[in-house]
Each structure stands twice: as structure tokens, then as C-alpha cells.
Amino acid sequence: MPADDELLVRGLAVGVCGTDKEIVRGEYGWAPSDDGRLVLGHESLGVVERAPTGSRFARGDLVAGVVRRPDPEPCGACAHGEWDMCRNGRYTERGIKERHGYASELWTVEPDFAVKVDSGLGVAGVLTEPTSVVAKAWEQVERIGERAWFDPRRVLVTGAGPIGLLAAMIGAQRGLDVHVLDRVTDGPKPDLVRDLGATYHRTSIEEVAASTQPDVVIEATGVGALVFGAIAETASYGIVCLTGVSSGGRRLDVDAGSLNREIVLENDALVGSVNANLRHYQAAAESLAAADIDWLRRLLTTRVPLDRAVEVFDESAADDVKVVIELDENLA
Ligand code: BGC
Questions:
Q1: What is the domain-level CATH number for residue 80?
Q2: 20, 67, 278, 281: which to mutate for ligand 1, most atoms within 8 A of CB?
Q3: Do residue 228 and residue 164 come from a single domain?
């Protein structure tokens, strides 16, 4: 049962990402300390069944739950509502770290850790959490850019998975010339990129970066060669934002001297970005509400009912974009 000050939410869907697959493989994730298992689901969508009086929510609202909770201390960042920037690592995350996730038919959430999703979005509202991650990345780019005169024109996004495509979508919403690099030739990705008015590339990172000279790179693969290739070829005052979490152990020959020289002589910046706070969820909800709903729905390339959920944790095809588990069998 929900506490008096919590929302009771009927789960509609959860998205599945690489983190979920890592958790299922036993490579990442932590169960709550008083439980031997972890309920998955950090990319949530549900409909409010019951809301505390005086909260910003009402029965029938579509909502997504926030993933991270501040550490118990809290550190300075968490104390300022910037739990995405937690300094001591003792934060918790629903569906990932020491808190059960949202992959259940009914869930509860504190109103301060939920965001309203535009009712017109329907199932595409499940993209709120991945979009929040991207909204944060763009905010980082903006803030770093503002350290001096900044008028970015061109963005290169590496990887046309959900994070890459949503980063490209926000780039297009900002009126930028958007370029996306991925390795697939078929499937929905090339068209999804083109339908944003962006350019799809399938060449090497060196080639695409040299020909586009991006002011901003949003790296969404975690592949070392792409990370270093992007850093080496930005425009002057370039900003590279890394959002992909790579598995360690892969070694790469890097000319550290040239890289250093390039970064210094061009005032380039390199930043990592993870998770999102409430401000980013709100920005995400706004971006999704302003997006083309048909385009968003095309990102949901695989949808399975709850009783087939186990099937989605295997390696997916390279042209799959977002996998969704439906918690409500009547979901349109
Ligand atoms: C989630 C983030 C989370 C990160 C690390 C990602 O998949 O989207 O919210 O902070 O994993 O646990």
C-alpha cells in the first residue's frame, strides 16, 4: 500500500536498456539490503490511480518515476536536488541500485520523484527516462559552452540507439545541423535519422568528424575508438559529451600527446554525463511533448507483454532501437 504522501500508480510499460541486460547477466546492480532480489524497471510509464491531496498529480495523469534518490548523508550535490551529481556514490536507484524498480503492475512513488507525461504521448511516454539522460547531457553542453562565446551550429551524435536518437531529436529541436553515425545500413535507424532532418553516416569516426567538424559531439556508444576519434576531430572550442558506459578491459593505442595538444590548442572540453535530476525529467517531458508522436512511436521497435518479458534480455539485433515490456495488456 502507498504511504499517505505517495502516489499509487498503475504500471503501463517499462523500457529495457543495456543496464537492465547487465543486471540480468549479474554484471551490475544491487538488490535492496533487506531483499535477496531486485525488481527491474527504471524506464517507467504509468497512470496515477491515487494521488495525495495537494500534490501536483491527479488520478488519470500519465507519469514517469525518477530513477535516482539522494544519498542519506546527503552530500552537497544531493542536498541541492542534484542527485545526478552525487559526490559520495551512496545514492540509490530504482531498478538498479538498492531500490526496487517500476516493472510491476502497481507501484508507488513520492510525488517529488515523479514527472507528468503529456497524455497525448501514450506508450511513447516510456521514453521519458532515456530522454531525461539526454536532456541532462545537453544541459551540460550548454553550460560548458557558456564559459565563453558559444554559437554551436553542428552536432555529431555517435550511435543511433535510443540515447543517440533522442540526443539527435533534441539537437534538431534546437535548430542544429545534426549528424548521426552508426554502423547499420538497414532497419529503421537510417530513416529515423533522416526523418529528423538530420544526416545519417556509416563511415569511420575519423571521416565523419573530419568532414563535419562538429561543435558538439554526443557520444552514445561507449566504444573507445569512437570516443577518442571524436575528441581528435571536433571544431575549435569543441565539446564532447560522453554518455555511453563501456565495459572495461578493451585496450586502444592512443596518441596521447596529439590528443592533449588538440584539446589545449582548441580549448576543447570533454565531459561525462550520467543520470538526471527533476529539472532534466521536466525538460525531457517538454521535449517529448513537442516531438512528432509517430516518430517517437517508431523508436519502440520491440514490444512484448509481461509474460514474455524474459525474452528481451538476450542480445538484441543491431537495428533494434527501444525494447518495451507492456505491463498493461490493453496498451495501445
Ligand atoms: C540509467 C541511469 C543510471 C545509470 C547508472 C542508466 O541506464 O539510465 O539513470 O544512473 O544507468 O546506474
A1: 3.90.180.10
A2: 67
A3: yes
pLDDT per residue as tens digits for the range 258-269: 999 999 999 999
Instruction: Give the domain range for residue 217.
Output: 132-272
- Residue whose CA is closest, atom 10 of ligand 1? 275
Do 84 and 54 lie in a common domain? yes
Ligand 1 lined by 163 (C-beta under 6 Å): no
pTM: 0.96
- 85, 166, 274, 278: which to mutate for ligand 1, most atoms within 8 A of CB? 274
Cell, residue 197: 532532418
Residue 89 pLDDT exceeds 80: yes
| 284 within a domain of the structure (yes/no) | no
- Secondary structure E strands in 6-160: 7-16, 43-50, 62-65, 68-69, 92-94, 98-99, 106-109, 114-117, 154-158
Q: What would the pLDDT profile of 98-107 be if each residue is shown by its tens digit? A: 999 999 999 9
274 lines ligand 1 (CB under 6 A): yes
Say what the pLDDT of residue 303 is.
95
Q: In terms of domains, do 313 and 211 share one? A: no
Position 252 scores a pLDDT of 84
Specify if 126 maps to a domain.
Answer: no
What is the residue-wise DSSP string for 2-41?
Answer: --TTSEEEEEEEEEE-HHHHHHHTTSS-B--TT-S-----
Q: Is 133 in the pocket of ligand 1 (CB under 6 A)?
A: yes
| Percent of the chain clearing pLDDT 70 (strictly above) | 100
